[in-house]
Write a structure and sequence with these properties.
The strands form 5 sheets. The protein has a 7-stranded parallel β-sheet, with helices on one face. Strands 14-15-16-20-18 form a 5-stranded antiparallel β-sheet. With 570 residues, the protein is of the alpha/beta class. The chain starts with 17 loop residues before the first strand and ends with a strand. It folds into 3 domains: 403 residues, Glycosidases (TIM Barrel, Alpha-Beta Barrel); 55 residues, Oligo-1,6-glucosidase, Domain 2 (Oligo-1,6-glucosidase, domain 2, Alpha-Beta Complex); 62 residues, Immunoglobulin-like, CATH 2.60.40.1180. The longest helix has 17 residues. Helix 6 runs parallel beside helix 8 and helix 12 runs parallel beside helix 15. The chain is 25% helix and 13% strand. It has 15 helices and 20 strands. It binds alpha-D-glucopyranose (GLC) and calcium ion (CA). The site of alpha-D-glucopyranose (GLC) has 10 residues, from loops.
Length: 570
């Protein structure tokens, strides 16, 4: 890393980008059928322009039975007819590009849906056929081959092997409706290379790569290791399906495709790999170029924890000539306002609550009772402060739809309305991720808070696909837009300032000494100071205040507050 300013243009646009994640079915519903759609997204381009984001990332919008919120793809080169058409996709991309916003799409290469034509062909073909070789089929064990080939568990619960009735089983890391592709198969590789080209040719600027650490597999051991043995080798390089070295070859081919475009298409890897050195492999410029680190979204709101994570990830990004990614919320985790409403967990304990109710390591809520004791007001202050902190860092910041409104997690979804396979496959033990996927409130008074239908149709619009609670009215966009103290106003101001300061901001930051429970760093001509504690601390001496996530009185930075200020002129 150098003290040169961060590059924000041309082929390097992604390095310092603010990327806004859209969960298409829950963003804006243009035709009132209760499901968000591409026309709805295109209508909100002005809103995203005002927010100031550099790019949007769309979670899957492909044809899907929604066994896993669209991460079960029936057809990788089409749009789900329930949410749009390819022509509407093109129009949406054009609308974003007209305002200078880039478009990133989600590629799901670890598994397809069980409705994908190639999986249907595999089921219809005999054991040992080329059709079956595109997926991972194995003979069952035990008498009559009735037992699964191993005792492995799927991510959402239940066995990782599903019988197909002829003595064979197929492997699925996630739900049974999500059979894993066989990445040793050349046809599969070519299929994805063509898919990348399909979207890049339509003008897509980059890709978010789902479960990027899962593609390469080695199931040649006989017998396969047991689930207990797998736990022992987790995090190492010899796991049969996580983070194997062979993923490098797959992404080297993808890189050739990305670099055949001008500017090269960008990519960011979703990797839930704990060891930063291993994670860094996905972020080299020979591989995907950038990798998510989810460290902050699993961290307690504590100064030393945040500092350690930032330092480590900046170092790692420097080593791979990548740029860091900062994420507080996404469609898989409890919204950060709600996480920060909870008491801090003991440093060595991932769980909180009676039951237990809260798994900090995965940022997931687990049932077993009620919502853990929450201090919503504190959650809001911490969330704004954390956002002010990450937006001051070098690297790209990923924002998840609704967090700019300060939306908390919706915990009161009736069981019957839940969609997440994690809820069903754990028999309700895991609450799942629906609570962060509830459709956005655009207005406080309209039916469905303005999510469904244009203004004239709203009275007739259908119920949104996930129920919105009454209190969503308090977080509606239109109300936040007219309130200068809203979370939305803070996001707009912070993003605009970040942009204005970018040209002068070096890629590095410099830590400065500061009192306990606080962090202070400078980015060349300006500083960021965060008070993680609850007691006010004096504002470090400096020049003009640029931004504050809370009210300063007598030059005191209150608890859970971030400020940006100018370096004092000599
Ligand atoms: C990723 C997605 C998640 C999905 C899973 C399986 O982790 O972010 O939503 O359930 O992959 O595709
Ligand atoms: Ca719709």
């Amino acid at each position: 890393m150098t003290t040169e300013p961060i590059l924000t243009t041309g082929a390097d646009w992604w390095r310092n980008a603010v990327v806004y994640q859209i969960y298409p079915r829950s963003f804006a519903d243009s035709n009132g059928d209760g499901i968000g759609d591409l026309v709805g997204i295109a209508e909100k381009v002005p809103y995203l322009k005002d927010l100031g984001v550099d790019a949007v990332w769309l979670s899957p919008f492909y044809p899907s039975a929604l066994a896993d919120g669209g991460y079960d793809v029936d057809d990788y080169r089409n749009v789900d007819p329930k949410i749009g058409t390819l022509a509407e996709f093109d129009a949406m991309v054009a609308a974003f590009h007209d305002t200078g916003i880039k478009v990133i799409v989600d590629i799901v290469p670890n598994h397809s849906s069980d409705r994908h034509e190639w999986f249907q062909a595999a089921l219809a073909s005999p054991k040992g056929s080329p059709e079956r070789d595109r997926y991972i089929f194995r003979d069952g064990a035990g008498p009559n081959q009735g037992q699964p080939p191993s005792d492995w568990k799927a991510t959402f619960g239940g066995p990782a092997w599903e019988p197909v009735g002829d003595g064979q089983f197929y492997f699925h890391l996630f739900a049974p409706e999500q059979p894993d592709w066989n990445w040793d198969n050349r046809e599969v590789r070519d299929y994805f290379l063509q898919t990348l080209r399909f979207w890049a040719d339509r003008g897509v600027d980059g890709f978010r790569v789902d479960v990027a650490h899962g593609l390469a597999k080695d199931f040649s051991a006989d017998p396969l290791p047991t689930a207990a043995e797998l736990r022992e080798i987790e995090g190492g390089p010899n796991h049969p399906y996580y983070d194997r070295d062979e993923v490098d070859d797959i992404y080297a081919e993808w890189r050739e495709v990305f670099n055949s475009y001008d500017p090269p298409r960008s990519a960011v890897a979703e990797v839930w790999v704990d060891v930063p050195e291993r994670r860094a492999r996905y972020a080299t410029q020979a591989s995907l170029g950038q990798a998510f680190n989810f460290d902050l979204l699993r961290a307690n709101f504590r100064a030393p924890d945040f500092k350690k994570i930032v330092a480590k990830n900046l170092e790692s990004a420097g080593e791979t000539n990548s740029s860091s990614t900062w994420v507080l919320s996404n469609h898989d985790v409890v919204r950060h306002v709600s996480r920060y409403s909870l008491p801090l967990t003991a440093p060595d304990s991932p769980f909180i609550g009676e039951g237990p109710t809260w798994d900090r390591d995965r940022a997931w809520l687990i049932s077993g009772g009620t919502e853990p004791i929450a201090d919503r007001e504190l959650g809001h202050r911490r969330a704004k402060a954390a956002t002010g902190f990450i937006l001051a860092l070098p690297g790209s910041a990923y924002i998840y739809q609704g967090e700019e409104l300060g939306l908390p997690e919706v915990v009161e979804i009736p069981d019957a309305d839940r969609q997440d396979p994690a809820f069903y496959r754990s028999a309700g033990y895991e609450v799942g991720r629906d609570g962060c996927r509830v459709p956005i409130p655009w207005t406080p008074d309209d039916p469905w808070f303005g999510f469904s239908g244009s203004a004239s149709q709203q009275a007739f619009a259908s119920k949104p696909h996930l129920p919105q609670p009454e209190w969503f009215a308090d977080y509606a966009v239109s109300a936040a837009e007219s309130d200068p103290d809203s979370t939305l106003a803070f996001y707009r101001k912070a993003i605009a300032l970040r942009k204005a300061l970018a040209k002068a901001s070096p890629q590095i930051l410099e830590w400065l000494d500061s009192p306990a429970d606080t962090l202070h760093f400078s980015r060349g001509p300006w500083h960021c100071f965060t008070n993680f504690g609850e007691v006010g601390v004096p504002l470090p001496s400096g020049g003009a205040l640029l931004l504050a996530s809370g009210d300063l009185k007598d030059n005191t930075v209150p608890g859970a507050t971030t400020v940006w200020f100018e370096e004092r002129q000599a």
